Amino acid sequence: MEVFSVVALVIYCVFLLIAIMASIMYGECNFNSVKLTGPFQVAHMDAHCKKDGTALSIWYPMDKEVYNV
Fold first, then answer.
1. Residue 44's beta-bridge partner residues?
2. What pLDDT score does 67 carry?
3. Would you state the pLDDT for residue 15?
4. Percent with pLDDT over 70 in the chain
5. Which of 39, 37, 46, 45 lies closest to 62 in space, CA to CA?
6. What is the full DSSP assignment across 7-40?
7. Which of 2, 8, 30, 38 sits at 20 to 30 Å (Cα–Cα) from 66?
8. Percent with pLDDT over 90 in the chain
9. Dist CA 22 CA 17 (whole Å)
10. 6-32 pLDDT, tens digit each
11. Which residues contact 44 (CB under 8 A, 6 or more apart)?
12. What is the mean pLDDT of the chain?
């Protein structure tokens, strides 16, 4: 095994450990504590592509009057 592959493996393991520890310490990422200001509310929609099997989360501004209906 070459030195470069060992260094790359160590770097990968360090980043993986940091990601796992952050996930355990802070939990799931969400926007519940964000205070919205201004005339718009944030709306969310999930789009799925059956052909490729990919998914996309779409966040867009929405008028508060329309949102409360």
1. 59
2. 63
3. 96
4. 88
5. 39
6. HHHHHHHHHHHHHHHHHHHH-S---TTPPP-SSE
7. 30
8. 25
9. 9
10. 889 999 999 999 999 988 988 877 767
11. 57, 58, 59
12. 83
Phi, psi of 34 (to 5 degrees): -75, 125
CA atoms of 44 and 37, how far apart (whole Å): 17
Output the CA–CA distances (angstroms, integers) from residue 27 to 19, 21, 45, 62, in the order listed: 11, 10, 23, 28
- How far is it, in rounded angstroms, from Cα 40 to Cα 20? 35
Pair 47, 64: CB distance under 8 Å: no
42 SS3 class: strand
Residue 1 reports pLDDT greater than 70: no
Q: How far is Cα 64 from Cα 69, in angstroms, rounded to an integer?
A: 9
Measured CA to CA, the distance from residue 41 to residue 60 in angstroms comes to: 8
- Phi and psi based region of residue 11 (left: phi greater than 0; alpha: psi -120 to 50; beta: remaining): alpha
